[in-house]
Specification:
By secondary structure, this protein is of the alpha/beta class. Helix content is 40%, strand content 14%. It is built from 16 helices and eleven strands. It starts with a strand and ends with a helix.
């Protein structure tokens, strides 16, 4: 029987999913392998009736440059009992599968790490290689290398935010933008920097102080008042959804929001509009301070996940896929493929990336690095001590809206 590989996609979509899967398929097909696609993410590995299909050249050629994922995804995470009782070894044995390719973000990578340990402990002759995906850009790749999907999502997010900024300028209003990013603010910061947004609020900013709604609101007002002093009566504020993820659940409840949680304990942020939540809270603060500001909420989220990948990700995903083949032929397993700026592939072993709980921790924005610090130093607008006197025209206590004092920077 011909040697085979099997590919699955876990988590949520990102531009380039099809590019990775179909490029892996083309590469292995050209080297004589059979390529099997597994629908349903990890759930297929723990099912007696997994939904699979062969991926031939024509299927791969038809889908490699499209958005979304031809292989249906899921957020299924196996339990210890699933591993012991339901791992479908027969799927691998009956199809002569030599390699499992997993495509996904931090949760998918953490499960890939568990599978690597499981296969090694059972001495099953199956290699597994993970491909780093997420629009959140929060997998720990070296040298600030992006995860695939991030640049395409940032491109579309910046396109939307640029249009929104023009609306703010044209109408003389403020628009509040919420951007995806459960654990890290890379996407929000990328959108804010690309569109010269006068304030971008990400969880990593609160590295020297606790995070709370009052500080988030004051940062936004700091930008609004600073622009008023400068004679600018419009702008945008970008907020990463992760700031709401990090808030005390009781504080969110006190704000009048009922939050539900998924089976992994994550707040189901996708079920509520963070932009609407923030806008409502900010409008209440305007009434307290007497500021006459008109704001409108805009959500940037699901609209950037399934767009067609831009050229950067088309090339990068192809390189990652070919890197999977290169690592496999060298006998690598239990790793994540890493491709450097010159297209050279190398393994990042999952056991080296794990934390004490065996999970792959998210990579957060390096808030002290040049990207963040230059943006906050030169593009953002906010109150400083030099503005206190002028700011008294708009707020009674300007010091309370001093950007650096709010953050204890």
């Amino acid at each position: 029987m011909k040697d085979s590989i099997i590919i699955l996609c876990g988590g949520g979509p990102a531009p380039g999913m099809n590019t990775v899967v179909c490029s892996v398929a083309k590469t292995f097909l050209s080297n004589g392998y059979r390529v099997i696609g597994l629908h349903g993410g990890y759930s297929g590995l723990f099912s007696n009736a997994p939904r699979t299909e062969d991926i031939d050249f024509f299927k791969a050629d038809a889908y490699f440059n499209r958005g979304g994922s031809y292989l249906q995804m899921s957020r299924f995470k196996p339990t210890d009992e699933d591993f012991e009782k339901r791992f479908n070894l027969e799927l691998f044995q009956s199809n002569n599968i030599k390699l499992l390719v997993t495509v996904g973000g931090d949760d998918t990578a953490s499960t890939a790490n568990r599978i690597a340990k499981f296969l090694e402990a059972k001495k099953y002759p199956i290699a597994n290689i993970h491909v780093p995906k997420t629009i959140d850009n929060d997998l720990p790749l070296p040298n600030n290398t992006p995860t695939f999907g991030f640049n395409s999502a940032k491109q579309e997010g910046a396109h939307i935010a640029r249009t929104i900024y023009e609306d703010a300028r044209t109408s003389g209003n403020w628009l509040l933008i919420s951007a995806m990013g459960r654990s890290a603010g890379h996407l929000a910061l990328g959108i804010g920097e690309a569109t010269h947004c006068p304030m971008t609020i990400i969880p990593e900013m609160f590295n020297k102080t606790g995070i709370c709604l009052d500080k988030i609101v004051k940062l936004a007002i700091s930008a609004i008042v600073k622009r008023k002093i400068l004679g600018i009566d419009y702008g945008t504020v970008v907020v990463a959804e992760g700031v709401f993820h990090d808030l005390d659940p009781q504080e969110i409840k006190n704000a009048g929001v009922t939050m539900t949680y998924d089976e992994h304990g994550h707040p189901e942020l996708g079920k509520i509009s963070k932009a609407v939540l923030f806008n409502d809270i900010l409008e209440k603060e305007f009434k307290k301070t007497g500021l006459k500001i008109k704001t409108r909420p805009v959500e940037i989220g699901y609209d950037v996940r399934c767009q067609d990948p831009i050229a950067y990700d088309l090339s990068y995903c192809s390189e990652l896929a070919m890197g999977v083949y290169e690592l496999f032929t060298k006998g690598e397993t239990g790793c994540m493929v890493y491709v450097d700026a010159w297209g050279n592939a190398s393994p990042l072993y999952l056991h080296d990336l794990q934390n004490a709980e065996g999970k792959i921790p998210p990579r957060r924005v390096e808030i002290s690095g040049g990207i963040a610090q230059n943006y906050y130093s030169h593009i953002c607008h906010y109150i400083t001590p030099a503005d206190y006197e002028a700011a008294k025209k708009y707020v009674a206590d300007p010091e309370a809206y001093d950007f650096k004092k709010i953050l204890n920077w």
